[in-house]
Amino acid sequence: MKNVLEIISVNPPEKRFAFDGSVIYRNSCEAVVYSKEGVLDVGVLTVPDGMPLPTVGHYVATYDVGTDYDRRIGGVLKELKRYDSLSAALSEPTDGVSSVKVRVLKVSEPKQGRSKGKSYSITEALCVLLAADGTLQTGSLVLPRGVEGVAPGEYLARFEVGVSWKRRAVTPLLVSLEPVGKPVARAPAPAAVRPAVTA
After folding, report:
1. Can you list the positions of beta strands (E) in 18-96?
2. Does some domain include residue 194?
3. At 184, is the pLDDT very low, low, confident or very high (cuts 50, 70, 90)?
């Protein structure tokens, strides 16, 4: 999936601890996310290890859906292609939506909390993801509001590029889960018609 963004500043490397306890350094940039209609949002774009740190400018970002260093399922930045201007980047065809197949193994009880005076509830699903490169990856998927009634089974997960509410991360976000291979309800067979018996 692709989306247009403008990097407005580059942050110094941030020391982090991965899920296995190892130390990693995260490179990130402050970015404005665009659609053909204008500005969508602003947030922090994490630059993966091995990718050159970009400079201030206009880019088309290409993502795959995969797992990050925290084992969360979401967007993985694959490429940043620089353009001379915003209009040149916006003229590039983009597909801000991607769908991948996931198998939900377990859905957690909602975690309730409060942040900055507002209540929130987070529900996560432990999943197996068929990644773009054909490998199977495991991780947790944060279920957004409106995605309800999820039970173990196979789903088509639809992602759109946006900014996460908690970390302000520029990334593909889950917008829907559609069951795959769920049996379709059929109308009951009509009752057998018996001829009327007359004496």
Report:
1. 23-35, 38-47, 57-67, 73-83
2. no
3. very low
